Amino acid sequence: MMNSYWENKVPAKFEHSLIKLRLWFYIIALVHLALISWYLLVIVDFSTSDDQNIRKYNQVRWRLLTTWFNLLFYIHLPVSVYCEWKALRGEASRKHVQILNDIRSTSFSSILLPTATFADLLFWRLWYKNPVLLAPMAILDAVPFWSQHCTHTVSLIVVIMDILLVPRQTPRSLKNGSMLLAAFVGTYTLMFLYSIAIEDEYIYSFTKTFSYYQLATFVLYMFAEHLFYFTSQWIIVDMLWGNEKNRGIYKRYLEKVKLS
């Protein structure tokens, strides 16, 4: 949830500057997402390849967890731009803006942050171990290396910056957020298992050698790590933005600046 405790105490000048910074940040992130999507979907055309594995990947890529959370970014980023623009105009208190702020805050903390963090960190761990664990080498060779950073590094930076720039307050209960996260990860897991069991389609190369026991272990690991990132973010939120008992790093800094 957005941090009303913080918003009532932040100096107006600092708040105005922070809103402008967030607005430009979201615009740049949205433009980057649109450009890399255009490049990977239009310029890099897997469907025309002579390699059957590459042509097949043209459909498989829509089942990647990276694709799923980037599609959510296509909702989160435009909504964020609109809300920050309204806040800059002094219209943040309008009912529909408050509703949109609550939706983007909830979807970000419950789905986008844990999912993007999990997918990006797992991607780079596997990449530096052996890229073939992610996909056949023919597919990896079909796209330039810099595009991997565009899809698996920039998104991680975006969620980190969102945590640093957007005032939030830890909810009294994490139950609803964790249930929303479980629903999203559960839906993806069902699709992931269906692809393997029914269609004999392995979205990720490293799962091809998995036994049923190893596959079940990976699913549990996926749920556990998502939950870890979901709960850990609130420790960071409390450290930065504070709560009723803790003023937070930003609040203490502003107090020092005001006294100096």
Describe the overall structure:
The chain is mainly alpha-helical and 260 residues long. It has one domain (4-259). Helices cover 75% and strands 0% of the residues. Helix 9 runs antiparallel to helix 10. The chain is globular and about 60 Å long. The two termini are 32 Å apart. Residues 3-9 have low confidence and may be disordered.
Q: How many domains in all?
A: 1
Total beta strands: 0
| Amino- and carboxy-terminal Cα gap | 32 Å
The residue fraction in helices comes out at: over 70%
Tell me the major beta sheet.
Answer: none
Shape assignment: globular
Question: How many separate helices?
Answer: 11
CA gyration radius, whole angstroms: 20 Å
Class inferred from helices and paired strands: mainly alpha
H/E series? HHHHHHHHHHH
Low-confidence stretches: 3-9
Overall pLDDT metric: 88
Beta-sheet strand percentage?
under 5%
Give a quick summary of the entry.
This protein is mainly alpha-helical.
List keywords for this structure.
single chain, 260 residues, mainly alpha, 0% strand
List the helices and strands and how they pair.
Blueprint: H1 4-7, H2 12-43, H3 52-60, H4 65-88, H5 95-129, H6 137-142, H7 145-152, H8 154-165, H9 175-197, H10 212-241, H11 248-259
Helix pairs in contact: 2-4, 2-8, 4-5, 5-8, 5-9, 5-10, 9-10, 10-11
